[in-house]
Amino acid sequence: MAPQAFKSNEIRRRFLSQRSISDVHEENFKSQQNLYSSGSNIPDYEKRKTKICHESRPSLMSSASNWENFSGFINLLKVMLLFANVRLFVENLVTFGFRIHVLPSFWELAKDPMHWTNTWIFIEINLFALVSLHIERQMAQGNLSESTGKTAHVVNCLLIVIAPCIQVLLAPEMPIPSFISIIFSIVFFLKMWSYAQANRWYSAKSATVTSENAKQNRKRKRRFSMPTATGDNDQQVEMMYPNNLTTANLYYFILAPTLCYEMEYPRTEKVRPYFLFKRLFETLFLFWLMIALIQQWLMPHMDRAAVDGSESPQKFLYHLLAMSVSNNIVWFCAFFLIFHSWLNFLAELLRFGDREFYRDWWNATDVQYFWQAWNIPVHKWCVRHLYKPLLRAGCSKAMTACAVFLFSAVMHELFISVPLQRLRFYSFFGMITQIPMQPITTFIGEKLGPSYGNMLVWTQIIIGQPLGVLAYVVDYHS
């Protein structure tokens, strides 16, 4: 072949080769256009042998992106919250100095005989519990009629609350110990009311349930006050009313982490020592931590609010915002101490099986679910001994719900006003306002979304609690 012909063939081959490469580029470009128009995922540019780096896609923070992973921002908020609280704590130390003195406070209470009134209160409410057992035994033996027995139970239950209140009001002012005493008396009142009312139900059932149909209704035996464990027929009859009216049965109920009486409770197989001591350590640590936070973080603002909180709305608002964080941290500690650590400690010690002491109240999108979820023992008592009996009596659901909130408002005002020895109804009206707040939070959650309803519930918690505390503090020192 001539050199000129060879050169022409080589140029033609290179030209065809270049055209094939451009065709490939054009095909890749068209395929990319199809991918972009279909809204595909972000391509892996490092694996592709191309210089195309753009496609149609929205920003991650826009709603069109459907991006949901914002965990980095959540971690940022956690870090910022940590540093913000550390700054507040350091500022508190610089401004007020070190104010924590836990042990001396207990020693001052112990050496003052006037504070021993609370010890007598703990003793006398146990006497009222034994009186309730005696009344029930007399009714079971036929020595007391049903109407007389009910009257005796009502009077005895009311004395459980009234007698400690009178003692606290006659004694010198001691708000913190008296607050604990009144709380215990209210708990005993709820327990003894449940004890009396549940035994009336068991008494009515025991008249109709025999040993034969108890065996046939083994699945329903707990409703007829039968034991949870399977056993022979004689053992089941032994647990029927009035054989449950024993001191051991009564005091198991008194110590159990529940307010609703039953003859038999679900039980665990054994006590777990590690779990038991872990809950006990949490209880002791959180109790000390709460006292330290109150002394170091809350009391200085309370003292200042008592001096200048009533002078102007601006100063009151400043103390309200200053206490909002610290007050709710103390409240969270109290919630964890009581409903997780202490009640689980009692449940483990007594092998009490039902450990549902709270639900996910922190996810509440309305006020109603919050009050149903954050204190399960009280909620169960209200449903069992107040809500359902009123419904059976013919009351409407709306009227019954208002009655439950009214009862709760009276109890809240009682254990705050009596230790302070003054009646101001701040706590009472705070609970009553929950009635109109229920439809408001429900409306916000339905119209704007559950997140807004949840934020409204949180706002009420964060602002409402220190507002009530400051109202009593300013009034107490005025």
Automatic annotation (TrEMBL):
Q: In which pathway does it act?
A: Lipid metabolism
Q: Does the keyword Transcription regulation apply?
A: no
Cell compartments where the protein resides = Endoplasmic reticulum membrane
Q: Kindly indicate whether the keyword Transmembrane belongs to this entry.
A: yes
What is any Pfam family matched here? MBOAT
**Membrane topology annotation:** Multi-pass membrane protein
Highest taxon listed in the record's lineage: Eukaryota
Any transmembrane segments, and where? 79-102, 114-133, 154-170, 176-196, 280-298, 318-343, 398-419, 456-474
Instruction: List UniProt keywords, sorted A-Z.
Output: Acyltransferase, Endoplasmic reticulum, Membrane, Transferase, Transmembrane, Transmembrane helix
Q: What is its main location?
A: endoplasmic reticulum
Give the family from UniProt: Belongs to the membrane-bound acyltransferase family. Sterol o-acyltransferase subfamily.
Q: What is this protein called?
A: O-acyltransferase
Lineage start: Eukaryota, Metazoa, Chordata, Tunicata, Appendicularia
